[in-house]
């Protein structure tokens, strides 16, 4: 049985991206880039939605040598979408058009490698709401994108209790925080 990790990179104010800012908000460093290119970080099955698939496959087609993109291209990917058509053009990508939560439950039962989302805010939200997520991992970049920020990560999420199980600092400024999430029906002690 596999564990599922929802994995986000975020600005300090909780945005997944920002207009005009470069990838990683321009503050990634060599320690973090080594981490995301390491074998340990690439030994999983990647899960994503259509929007993330379109974005990442476009990046991979344009710059296959960029940090992490060659590894991501080589990795097995499962894409959940009702708008894309098979076969998908990005190597090692499988399309699932049915219910994502049911498909992920099945993948968790039969896969030996860990499962991990890449971006895919609505997919990640639905998996958390369904209670199938084992870990919730954030890498927080030290920028605030209040005027230009796009895609607020946590909007529409259920209330969660998060128990910290891992933390790490990269390049003296990026924070990795990994939690075990518990979906709450109501605020504690209410």
TrEMBL record:
Domain Bacterial bifunctional deaminase-reductase C-terminal: 4-175
One Gene Ontology term from the biological process aspect of the record: riboflavin biosynthetic process
Record-linked Pfam families: RibD_C
Signal sequence interval, chain numbering: none
InterPro entries in the record: DHFR-like_dom_sf, RibDG_C, Riboflavin_Biosynth_HTPR
A GO MF term: 5-amino-6-(5-phosphoribosylamino)uracil reductase activity
Matches recorded under SUPFAM superfamilies: Dihydrofolate reductase-like (SSF53597)
PANTHER family: BIFUNCTIONAL DEAMINASE-REDUCTASE DOMAIN PROTEIN, DIHYDROFOLATE REDUCTASE FAMILY PROTEIN (AFU_ORTHOLOGUE AFUA_8G06820)
Protein name stated in the entry: Deaminase
Organism placement in taxonomy: Bacteria, Bacillati, Actinomycetota, Actinomycetes, Pseudonocardiales
